[in-house]
Each structure stands twice: as C-alpha cells, then as structure tokens.
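Table S2 (text version). Query chain:
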Amino acid sequence: MSAGSVKKANRQQQRSKRRFSVISRLAGSTALLAAAVVLLAIVFSQTFQGNFFKGAFETPLEEWSTMMANRIGSDREMARSVAMRHQLWLVVFDEEKYFAYGPTGEPANHEQLQQQAARFRRIDVDGPHGEQISIFMDDKRFANSQLHLLAGLIVLLLVVIAVIYAFQLSQLRPLLWLREGVDSVSRGDFSVRVPVARQDEIGQVGQAFNHMTRRVEKMLSSHEQLMADVSHELRSPLARIKVALELMPHSDKRDAIARDVLQMESLTSALLERERIKNIADNGKLQSINLTDIVSEIVERYSQQPPGVVYTNPPASLNIQADTALISVLVQNLIDNAVKFSLTDSKPVEVRTHQHKDRVQLIIEDDGQGIASADMEKVFEPFVKLDLARGHRGGYGLGLNLCQRIADAVGGSIQLSAREGRGVRIEVLLPVAQVK
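Corresponding structure-token output:
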C-alpha cells in the first residue's frame, strides 16, 4: 500500500466515524424535524390564504353574519363598533338611506366599496326591522392578520425542538468523553480519565473505564520499573564478569562468553535508555536544538556504507524543542534500520527535513524490502521482531520502540507507511522550538 493510499484510507475512516456518529445522526434528525415543521407551516399558510377553507367557512360565516345583523339593526354606534372589532366594512341600507363604516371606525364610501368588490367577500343579510346589511370581508387581510400567530407557533415549535436536542445532547455527551478516552487508550495513553458527571448506566461505564485505565497504567508502570531495576542490578555482575574475562587466557570459549556479555550489555543499555526517556518526559527538560546539525552528522557516518544515505536540501537551521541525546538516538536508529534492511540493488536512503507551521517534519525513505501493512503498528511494540526474511536475526526489537518513546517524550509523533514500489517511508513530526 502506498503512502497516498494509507492517508486516503485514514481520511475515509475519519469520515466514516463522523457519518455514523450518534451525535451526527441526532443532529441530522433534529434538523430534518425542524425543516419539516417550517415546511408544513408554509404549506398551511398558503392553503389558508387560498380557497381550500372557504367552502368550510361559508355556513358559519352566514350564521355569524345573521347574528351580527340582528345586533346592529339601524344602530350606527353598534355598526361602527362591529366594524372596528372585526376589522371589516359594514354598509346598512335603511329606507333609501345608508351609512357605512370601515375597520378604523371612520365612515366609508359605499360606491368605492362596490367598485372594489372583487377584493372582498360580500355577505348580504337582513336586519331585524327590514334593513339590508352588507358585510365586506378582506380575505387576504384576515389571513395576513393571522400570520404573526403562525410565525409565533413556528418559533415556539423550533425552540421546543432545540431544547429537546440540547437535552438529548447533554445525555449523550458522556459517550463522547468515552469515545475520546478509548481513542487515547488505542494510542497507548493509559493516563487518560473520562469525566463522570452522572451515576446512571453511562456514568457507571465511565467509572469502569477509569478503573480499567488506572489498573492498566499501574501494571505497565510496575512492568517498566521491574525492567529498569533488573537492568540496574545486571550492570554490576556484568562488570565483574568482564573483569574475570580479562584474567582468562584467550580461547574460543572466552570469546564466546565475551560476545554474550556484550549482547547483555547492549540489552541492559537499551532498557536503561527507555527509563531515561521516561524521566525526561516526566521532568520536561527540553531545550532548543538544531535538527539540521544532528541529521547532517549522522548522515555523514553512513554516507560510505552501502547503499548510502543522502540528505536532500538540508536547511541551514531547523530548531526544535527536544533533547539532543534523545533526538540523536532517534535519527541514528531510523537511519541505521533503513540502511540495514536495504537490498543489494537498493537506491540510497533519502532523508528530508522541513518546517510546516508549528511542526518540523523528518522524513526517511528507503528502497528496501519494506514492511507488510499488517506489521506497521506491530513493529513499535517492545521486543517484537519480524520474520527472518527481513534479516531480523540480531537485535532485540527495541529500536523502533525507543524511537516512538522519544517522539512521544518530546511531544511529537512517528508513523510508518509503505512507499510505492518497495521500501518504507518514516515520517517523524517534532515540535518547533519555543521562541523566548
């Protein structure tokens, strides 16, 4: 798998997580519900202003008009009051005389009302004493007068939906904390703890998660401490054995013992180096160092060793916030691996460095046999060695584990990916030096 394919797969995985997130689905369903409420309100408003309800209102309007006509009769004040209260126009004919009022209570012109009859609904009824009463109703004005009620109802429904969504989100927030905690554990950070805000089932899961990470962190710490203590205790016996070897006469048996002692010294040194990295990470003793100088010096050591190492376009200065000894170990281990596992016809190992925003990128690419995609993460585990086909006959499987620990200790990261064709691409991100 190529580096581009790996990055594409990671992006697709992130999009898949967002697509199937419970919070995303909850937000989507809430947005659809809100859109449906607004759409139904618009449809209802348009229907209400149209002719759909007019037929249903005919009989009630006629009965209401008859009741109003009986109350009005020839009473001018009553006619004026009804016109104002119900926002309509009234015309009362009484023995060839008439009087008319509009919604404002002012007298109206009967002839103008007749000329504009197309915009009104007109209802003619008889009064109690033979009066002819005409009621002119502006359907559009009546419908528009109710729009503020409809808008208020829409706002109320949307507020209720928003409150329900916020409540559901608050109930699901502990799941987000748990997911972030699980992601941290998957990256090897067992110091993470999730907030426990409730004592319900989700809160109990959070407590169980915290208890689990606390126990695992303690077990790992005890394991690390045991290895460190054993390494310290082995140094004295090894020193005594080396002194005894110097007193022995030269023989094949002596040489074999000397090689074994050398291997044990190398192993204890690697284990002690792990402990030193942990102490530096805990104490935060980092300083500004020039990565270009360190890389150039180590590349020079391997320049004459097949297939060679090339430092492409080295910048004059590239300062990072780290520890000089640790970064030297990291760069040397990575370049040493790249050279060690190159093939006879491999191209030179290529090293590049450049700054991107607040990170410095160190890239090392070899043209060797490569690593299977299934083993990309496995190689960072301590004491893990791949198959013999890649030449893992020597060593202890601690090199890349040390590199990962160093990157973590200085606040960086390290990632392996396959190159197109063959070989491995190693990308290390390191923090830029802090400006004082």
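Notes on Table S2: DSSP finds twelve helices and eleven strands in the chain. The longest strand covers residues 349-356.
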